[in-house]
Structures are given as structure tokens and as C-alpha cells.
């Protein structure tokens, strides 16, 4: 008995497709393609349905690109199985795709799916030794416009791993920020309210900006930096422009919003008459509560002059944590030297000595010293060594055995590097941790 027939998909069949989708799920099959994709392909690509009377009893949906076609959906209602409907659907959808001149037709199937007769019936063969990989792209297409206007971007995926050393800070940020934000449902089960705003403070060059970016990279959220100095030239004024920027940010699904040198716009509201910046501080104080109500975003403010901040600005309820980012300890300095010394020579350099000589150096200072050592060594190799021949070809072939900087180059560079953080500034920082830090 064959009182079913196959015809092209019409928009009015959407309910039927939905019903088929649900019956698949009811059978415990987790389809590879999302429902939204299948529905989009029904409208835009190639779809056929099997109907009995008015009822949709089966469907096949395919899409074609270049030489290859993909079956993104194939289903028949349970009570209509075993009648060859699946095979006919496949044949029909293949016909619809034929004008593309495909030379291969493929289908992905959950491993647990056992009803594959239709595919076998149409000459598909199971490919062995294949694995399926997928990655969810963190920013949706419709967000790209808003993100572009804000100058926001998705950062490289490895920034978090690339923060050398700083184990204590990393662990703290991982536990307090990344965990509850990345695992929002789990956090909710435990009654943890995910943080919405944090301040990173510490002397110059210790890695505050680096950490803010690394957090965004780790969460795979877009990174949006707000530049008060740029907003200041806005015709709406700094306060108005700030408000507008945060309204645009509210359009994004997720974001790490970064304000560097926040002391510039949130300094002590002292003095009479009030400074022109006071309006901006007040605006920011108003913006933060609204920002805090939206899930999926984190405000990171950085400052190296935390004592200058308005006390109201820092209070509980506005910022969840006030986190110190200090000078690197022995382990962190060692990790940084390992990172900054070229791999070709790293085993020959006395790193312990460099670590010892760079106490009080910030990561930025260490990076600077490492770069200048490399530059010096290169110049020495090209211009000073090699008995006057000076050709870079000699250097490359290592005529003098030198292949990169040696320990002495690093020690010289260290001796010539002026540290950014003076002992007094560091002492102030330690006091700030006691008085203002909150982790
Ligand atoms: N843990 C680290 N590992 C490797 N490099 C680092 C690390 N921390 C910082 N750096 C490097 O040191 C330099 C300064 O870091 P960064 O700009 O993040 O410091 P900052 O605290 O934001 O400084 P400022 O207070 O001046 O804004 C950057 O070039 C960064 O790449
Ligand atoms: Mg910075």
C-alpha cells in the first residue's frame, strides 16, 4: 500500500518538520544539525516532504556547496517506517540538488542512530575512521555590527595560557571570575552570583591590561575597551558619550568591558568648586548598577593609582573584587625569562641568575631587558664578531659559534634597564593591598 507521496517543501510544512524533529528526539536521537539550521535549509536550500493526506510523515533536507552536498535532516515518523519512504525522500532531495553538479553527497549521523537503511538503500557507504569536530563560534553574526561600532573584538584564544607565571593571580582570577562566568548554571546551583565588575590595581607594567584581555580570551567573550579620552571629544560630552557607549554594550550577548586608567574618570570627588570630571564620575556611578543587572558581561577597570579613586566608586555592591596585580615573584620571573629567551638558546642561559638580578622588575621591564639583550646580541654578531667580515650569512651559519644571546648579554641588558616601579611605589602598593584590596 502506497498512499503517501513526495513533494517539495512548502512553508506550511514547518509544523510537520517540527513534529518529525520531536519524534526523533523522543526516540533518543540527538541530531547533528540544530533545528534552526534545518529550518533555515528548508527555506533556503533543498527540502522535500513525504505526505499522507495532509500529514507530513517524513522529510529530507539537503544543502549544497561547491561539489559536495550534505543531508542535514532525514526522518520518517515511526509508524511509517519500513515502507521505503526514507529511500524515496533521499532520492528526491538528491534530484533537487543535482543541478549543482555535485560529485559527493554526505551525511553525518550520531553513532547511536541505527536506522540507516535509507542511506544504505541509496548507495551511501559508512566511512570508517572518521571523527567529527565542531566548535561554537562565540559571537553571533547579528552582533558583529554592534561590536564593530564599539571597536570590540574577539581576541586570540591562547592569551590566558600565554600569561607567564603569576600563578597566584591567575588562580584567583580563574576561581573568582572565570569559573562562575563560564559555568553560570553550575554557579547558580550553588547560589553563587557571578561577578559583574572588578578593579585590577597595581604598579605600572605588572600585567593589568594583559590580564583583562586574557580573561576575555579565556571566556571567549568579545573584548571592548572604553577610552574615556576618546569619548571626551564627543559632542554629547564625556558623560553623555559614556552613557551611550554602555547602551550599545547592552546590545551584546557577552562582553568583557575594559576601562584602563579609570582614576582619570573616577577620582576623588573632593573640592569646591567641583571639578568638571565630577559629572563623569557621577555618570559612571549610575552606569554600573544598570550594567550589573545584565548577565553575560564583566566590567574590568584598571588603575595604577587606586588611592586616587573616589571611595564611593569602590564600595561593595559596585565592584565585586578589587584585585592587586603586583610585581612578579621568583617563579613568575623564571616563567617570564623562559618565555622571552629564544628557544634555541634558552637551555644555555643561566636563568637562575637572571631571576635573581631582576627582583623588583615588572613584566614590562623584563620584557624590555630581554628584547634589548636580543638586539645587542644580534648587533654584536653582525658588526663586532666574525673578524671583520661582518656578513649576516656568517652569523646564520654560526661561524663564531654564536647563535643568539648569551647570559652576559642578558646581564648587561638588565644592568642598563631602569626599573619602572620604585621601592616607594611598591611600598604604597603593599599598603593599598591592605587598605583597599578585596578578593
Ligand atoms: N605574566 C606575563 N607574562 C608575559 N608577559 C607579560 C606578563 N604580564 C605582562 N606582560 C607584558 O608586560 C607588558 C606590560 O603589561 P601590561 O600592559 O599588561 O601592564 P599594565 O599593568 O597594564 O601596565 P600599565 O599600568 O602601564 O597600564 C606587556 O608587553 C605584556 O605583554
Ligand atoms: Mg595597562
Short synopsis of the structure:
The protein is α/β, with parallel strands linked by helices and 439 residues long. It contains 19 helices and ten strands.
Structure keywords:
439 residues; alpha/beta; Aminopeptidase; Helicase, Ruva Protein, domain 3; 3 domains; 5-stranded mixed sheet; elongated; binds adenosine-5'-triphosphate; binds magnesium ion
- The CATH superfamily of the largest domain is known as P-loop containing nucleotide triphosphate hydrolases
Give the helix level as a range of percent. 40-55%
Give the terminus-to-terminus CA distance.
73 Å
Largest sheet: 5 strands, mixed
* Computed CA radius of gyration, to the nearest angstrom: 31 Å
Within the largest sheet, what's the order of strands?
Answer: 1-2-3-4-5
Amino acid at each position: 500500500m502506497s498512499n503517501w507521496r513526495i513533494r517539495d517543501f512548502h512553508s506550511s510544512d514547518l509544523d510537520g518538520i517540527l513534529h518529525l524533529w520531536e519524534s526523533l528526539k523522543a526516540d533518543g536521537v540527538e541530531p547533528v544539525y540544530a533545528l534552526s539550521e534545518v529550518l533555515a535549509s528548508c527555506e533556503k536550500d533543498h527540502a522535500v516532504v513525504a505526505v499522507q493526506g495532509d500529514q507530513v510523515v517524513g522529510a529530507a533536507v539537503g544543502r549544497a556547496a561547491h561539489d559536495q552536498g550534505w543531508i542535514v535532516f532525514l526522518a520518517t515518523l515511526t509508524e511509517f517506517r519500513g515502507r521505503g519512504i526514507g529511500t524515496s525522500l533521499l532520492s528526491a532531495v538528491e534530484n533537487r540538488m543535482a543541478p549543482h553538479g555535485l560529485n559527493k553527497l554526505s551525511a553525518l549521523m550520531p553513532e547511536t542512530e541505527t536506522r540507516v537503511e535509507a542511506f544504505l538503500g541509496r548507495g551511501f557507504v559508512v566511512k570508517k575512521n572518521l571523527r567529527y569536530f565542531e566548535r561554537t563560534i562565540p559571537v553571533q553574526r547579528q552582533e558583529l555590527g554592534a561590536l564593530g561600532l564599539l571597536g570590540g573584538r574577539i581576541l586570540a584564544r591562547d592569551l590566558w595560557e600565554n600569561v607567564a607565571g603569576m600563578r597566584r593571580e591567575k588562580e584567583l582570577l580563574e576561581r573568582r571570575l572565570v569559573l562562575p562566568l563560564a559555568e553560570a548554571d553550575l554557579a547558580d546551583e550553588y547560589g553563587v552570583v557571578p561577578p559583574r565588575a572588578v578593579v585590577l590595581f597595581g604598579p605600572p607594567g605588572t600585567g593589568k591590561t594583559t590580564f583583562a584581555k586574557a580573561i576575555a580570551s579565556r571566556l571567549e567573550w568579545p573584548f571592548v575597551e572604553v577610552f574615556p579620552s576618546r569619548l571626551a571629544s564627543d559632542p554629547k560630552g564625556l558623560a553623555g558619550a559614556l552613557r551611550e557607549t554602555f547602551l550599545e554594550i547592552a546590545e551584546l550577548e557577552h562582553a568583557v568591558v575594559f576601562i584602563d586608567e579609570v582614576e582619570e574618570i573616577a577620582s576623588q570627588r573632593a573640592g569646591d568648586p567641583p571639578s568638571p570630571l565630577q559629572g563623569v564620575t557621577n555618570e559612571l556611578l549610575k552606569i554600573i548598577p544598570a550594567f550589573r543587572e545584565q548577565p553575560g558581561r564583566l566590567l574590568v577597570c584598571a588603575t595604577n593609582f587606586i588611592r586616587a579613586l573616589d571611595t564611593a566608586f569602590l564600595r561593595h555592591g559596585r565592584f565585586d573584587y578589587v584585585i592587586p596585580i603586583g610585581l612578579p615573584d621568583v617563579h613568575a620571573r623564571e616563567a617570564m625569562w623562559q618565555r622571552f629567551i629564544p628557544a634555541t638558546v634558552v637551555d644555555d642561559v643561566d636563568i637562575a641568575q637572571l631571576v635573581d638580578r631582576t627582583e623588583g622588575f615588572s613584566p614590562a621591564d623584563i620584557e624590555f631587558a630581554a628584547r634589548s639583550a636580543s638586539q645587542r646580541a644580534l648587533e654584536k654578531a653582525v658588526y663586532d664578531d666574525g673578524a671583520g667580515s661582518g656578513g649576516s650569512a656568517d652569523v646564520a651559519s654560526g661561524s663564531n659559534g654564536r647563535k643568539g644571546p648569551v647570559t652576559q648579554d642578558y646581564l648587561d641588558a638588565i644592568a642598563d634597564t631602569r626599573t619602572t616601579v620604585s621601592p616607594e611605589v611598591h611600598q604604597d602598593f603593599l599598603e593599598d593591598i591592605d587598605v583597599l584590596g578585596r578578593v
